[in-house]
Amino acid sequence: xxxxxxxxxxxxxxxxxxxxxxxxxxxxxxxxxxxxxxxxxxxxxxxxxxxxxxxxxxxxxxxxxxxxxxxxxxxxxxxxxxxxxxxxxxxxxxxxxxxxxxxxxxxxxxxxxxxxxxxxxxx
Length: 123
Hints:
Blueprint: E1 4-7, E2 10-13, E3 18-24, E4 32-39, E5 46-51, E6 58-60, E7 68-73, E8 78-83, E9 92-100, E10 112-113, E11 117-122
Parallel strand pairs: 2-11
Antiparallel strand pairs: 1-3, 3-8, 4-5, 4-9, 5-6, 7-8, 9-10, 9-11
């Protein structure tokens, strides 16, 4: 069982940056691949980024490549999402998720989800 708690969201102007964090409970965090997803009002939840359990492999949605960076610190049971050059279309609730094994880019692959942190980008 893994519990996930996101933080770091907020209101920023276009072009600004935030660092989202996701703290995980449990002693087996290093066994889980982690993902970040987002959901805007009226839209489906979409993949943003994923990282392997060791942190050596990362995957990004095309819409965020070059602007967002996913990383993890297994000693701190935490995964991060650095979001730079934010655009109004990045406005959404951001969720982290965990799954055993390989990282994945689709929501149903993940077994555990946090409650989300809101990111709002003003133009």
